[in-house]
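Q: Start with the shorter request: fold the first protein.
A: Done. Sequence, then structure:
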Amino acid sequence: MKQYIGIMEDESETNEKTLKQMEEMANQIYNLEMIINSYKKELNDVKLALTEKSNLNNTLITKLSSLERYNEKEEKSKNEYMETIYRQRSLFDQQVQILEDKYQSVKQINLQLEMQIMDLQCDLEKANLEITKNKQIIEKMKKKEESNTDTETQKENSIMK
């Protein structure tokens, strides 16, 4: 019996050890299940955050696409505006050149007209001098004639006397 008791004690110790090992394993399993549950919760939180980030990313991509289209329209509008400005500037430059050419032509015509007026004034002054000379000559001739007529009249009067 001693042997039997010894064997029982050994079995009891073994059972206790096994029980203790089972309790430790149960604790380890519980701890592992807690860790697994914690990881599952963390995984769900990460999935949710990823979904939110993905949605935000899609929203931002949509907004970026919209902004790019807007930017393209603005760029096109700016280019059209600049093209219009360049055309208007070119037209303005052409008009300025035409006006400058007309101004130079009018200036040249005015210069020619001024020269013709000066020539005509010179001709007029010459003609006036001629007229004045002719008047003086006519006056002298009239005086001479009068003088001659007076002399003849005196001669006739003297003869008649």
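Q: Next, the second protein, separately.
A: Sequence, then structure:
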Amino acid sequence: EWVDERLLDKNTVTLDTHQTSPLFKLFGFNVLPTWIASDEIEAVHMAENIGYPVAVKLRSPDIPHKSDVHGVALNLRNSREVSNAAQSILDTVKFSYPSANVHGLLVQGMAKLGSAEELRISIAVDKVFGPVILLGQGGSEWNIAQDAVAALPP
């Protein structure tokens, strides 16, 4: 079964890429390889295994919009870039958001330009309709008011 029992906790509000990838694979979506690293040394090791270029992203349930806190580094092409980006992300969060619960970093392969789309899926509870699924373009420029479409779950 794809669901990790820890995800069923009532206090879980968001799931990251690493947590949702098994579900997307189950439904036939192609997903990029994603690994969890605790520090810059592990991030470099993961990047070497995945192959360059990679993205390094902050993993914290307390900071939902990683790009707002410089928690995302894209198109990293070698171990030096990965190490520097990972350390910078962790240092910035430690300094700017000392109380944030940080679960390390996501290291993810980069999609070839033009061959993939970034998707954002959110669930909201509407006062009238109840649970609503919001689908839209992913990425740092995502704007729910402009880019999302709503669907009611079955």
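Q: Describe the second briefly.
A: Strands lie at 34-37, 54-58, 72-76, 105-109, 119-126, 130-137, 149-151. The chain has two domains: 5-109, 119-151.
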